[in-house]
Amino acid sequence: MSLFPKDFLWGGATAANQYEGAYKEAGKGLSVQDVTPKGGLPEPGNTSPLITEEPTADNLKLQGIDFYHRYKEDIALFAQMGFKVYRTSIAWTRIFPNGDEEEPNQAGLEFYDNLFDELAKYGIEPLVTLSHYETPLHLARKYNGWASRDLIAFYERYVRTVFERYKDKVKYWLTFNEVNSVLHAPFMSGGITSPVEDLSKQDLYQAVHHELVASALATKVGHQINPDFKIGCMVLAMPAYPMTPKPEDVLAARQFENQNYLFSDLHARGRYPAYIRRFFKENQIEIQFAPGDEDLLAQHTVDFISFSYYMSVVQAHNPEAYSSGQGNVLGGLQNPYLPSSEWGWQIDPIGLRLVLNAFYDRYQLPLFIVENGLGAKDVLVEGPDGPTVEDDYRIDYLKQHLLQVAQALEDGVEVWGYTSWGCIDLVSASTAQMSKRYGFIYVDRNDDGSGSLNRYKKKSFGWYQKVIETNGQSLYED
């Protein structure tokens, strides 16, 4: 018998800026993603990502995979796989093109009406991220993004608009994607234009505070508009192991994890944890609270915790003595006991079980795995039913991780669902590559922008279809 509950929400996840395309159609404004043609992470040798004045033709995200025009075709494929839930995001700049307008863009609202109606046709629940690395570019350049408290009011207007519009179409909401990533990718995650080397810890953590207050405010507004809404936070989960049993290494791992727990602690417990006070004191950080901030955080905590999980890392008190991990957004050292993906992300299925247990022990709130997957350079080959990808490596990755989810369920952890990242191939947020593929569906587009954009089912498509159909029972079959 499957260990997965009968109402487990199986599905996939995407983000508007990585697959919608149509970056300036129907009144859409520019987001920070439209001016980062090499992705949102620093290039080797730099501290900040490459940011252009205007969108450039080499930015694959401008066209994405043209989901904006092909959403019916793609949703039909998701339904064929048996999705119970589909995680996507609303592009803030489709609703408020600059971010600070008084009135929303009706054409943008209508697009998401049509999208949610199409999902409803197949009985697929939308799980919607309100801000997925898509800060309006105007807000970034005029206000320095979330470094400014002004963004709280703009964000409130935006979320109130979409909550009211879709209150009968969407039940599950996430306030910010991987909110803790702002510490490491301030422009991509927080629209903060200050160069990293000039950004003080005071300004960075004040921006964090603004986002967390805005998240609590969104939770308050959402529950007022529809008490049945389930509103969650979304964090980047990355467990840290000590390099050795040496107490100093154990302490280094704990301190690394506390940086991330800060965000889920505030979302779930509603107050700054005691352990952060020393860090603030030692770094001359004094968070400026506006009247009402403290009560807002305390009284409007989230209904569930969601997270991405791709890898674990290792920490040591003397990191210079070891090899750094490759591709880690949050940093960390390489684990000599784990294999790595083509992009250097270490593969650790048991780490997912550890994360699930740690979050549940800490908060006793339902959990939702909203990103997990393997980026790989897939090769399209001719199969008996047409072009396909023999992605057994992806099947093995997902199977091993899902088996650990089952173990966590047996441990007593409450998990609502699982949405595999990039269920259809899309443009990488971190590198802006198309060749870093995650999907069950191959999209014919290349890193140079060429390709037909035709969709082809990979081998993993049928595998995941069976996993969902059997509610996970097929994971135990050879």
Mean pLDDT: 96
N- to C-terminal distance: 15 Å
Largest sheet: 8 strands, parallel, barrel
Count of helices? 14
CATH homologous superfamily placement: Glycosidases
**Regions with little confidence, pLDDT below 50 for 5+ residues:** none
Radius of gyration: 21 Å
- How many individual domains? 1
Strand order, largest beta sheet: 1-2-3-4-5-7-9-12
What is the number of strand segments? 14
CATH T-level fold name? TIM Barrel
Structural class determined from secondary elements: alpha/beta
Q: What is the architecture at the second tier of CATH?
A: Alpha-Beta Barrel
User: What sort of overall outline do the alpha carbons produce when their principal axes are compared?
Assistant: globular
Q: What is the succession of H and E elements? A: EHHEHHEHHEHHEEHHHEEHEEEHEEEH
Strand content: 5-15%
Helix percent band? 25-40%
Q: Regarding CATH, which class?
A: Alpha Beta
Please state the oligomeric state of the protein chains shown.
single chain
